[in-house]
């Protein structure tokens, strides 16, 4: 049973608009949630994280929102740029660096920014 | 900073061959390294966790005699797929961290194809 779910395999957004990527989780033991970005033929690159004691974390154009009661988080990218086109993975763990079980990943969402 | 190098990036070999994949942290000491595997359209799944100088901890369902992991130094971990078969064909990717309070950094992965 998947503990981290990204239900949208792909998302297409126009350049300059807001991109919203969603992620749901089932394990209430998760304390940290991370977003990784992956370009083809490269490994995932850490983007932003949030701990369970917060409901929002912002870093430049990227903001992650966490709704613990709904076990839902989202990544907002505004404004979206062509270089944002990539696969975005949502991950969760008991520790920021990954607990004893490493990171639990979703299947990823392929974000396509259209000019 | 925080660069993880993985080699080789692509391997094609015959069934029955053993394949070694290297994972190096280039600019930090990785006390813990993780090995993940990703099948098409699936999420990255943790295979094992290795701490420098000790035996790796394998996830349920991962055969430790088939996937040999060595973490002999703070900058190098190796994964050897022994007597590989077509069903072992997958994308293998390592990650490393130097601190449980820091996110994991990923290599670029190894695409393994067994004929």
Order of helices and strands of chain A: EEEEEEEEEEE
Q: Based on the structure, what is the oligomeric state of the protein chains?
A: heterodimer
- Largest interface, C-beta within 8 A: A-B, 27 and 29 residues
Number of strands of chain B: 11
Task: Return Rg of chain A in Å.
Answer: 13 Å
Number of helices of chain B: 0
In percent, how much strand structure appears in the residues of chain B?
A: over 45%
Name the structural class of chain A: mainly beta
The percentage helix of chain A is under 10%
Characterize the largest beta sheet of chain B: strand count, sense, and whether it forms a barrel.
7 strands, mixed
Sheet of most strands of chain A:
6 strands, mixed
Q: Strand share of the residues of chain A?
A: over 45%
Distance between the termini of chain B: 37 Å
Structural class of chain B: mainly beta
Q: What is the global morphology of chain A?
A: globular
Shape of chain B: globular
Mean pLDDT across every amino acid position of chain B: 92
Number of strands of chain A: 11
Question: Keywords for this structure?
Answer:
heterodimer; A: five-stranded antiparallel sheet; 0% helix; B: 115 residues; seven-stranded mixed sheet; four-stranded antiparallel sheet; 11 strands; globular
Give your account of this protein's structure.
Chain A is built from no helices and 11 strands. The relative contact order of chain A is 0.33. The radius of gyration of chain A is 13 Å and the shape is globular. With 115 residues, chain A is mostly beta strands. With 115 residues, chain B is an all-beta fold. In chain B, 0% of the residues lie in helices and 51% in strands. Chain B is built from no helices and 11 strands. In chain B, strands 2, 4, 5, 6, 9, 10 and 11 form a 7-stranded mixed sheet that branches. Chain B is globular and about 40 Å long. The relative contact order of chain B is 0.33. The model of chain B has no long low-confidence stretch (mean pLDDT 92). The chains are: A mainly beta (115), B mainly beta (115).
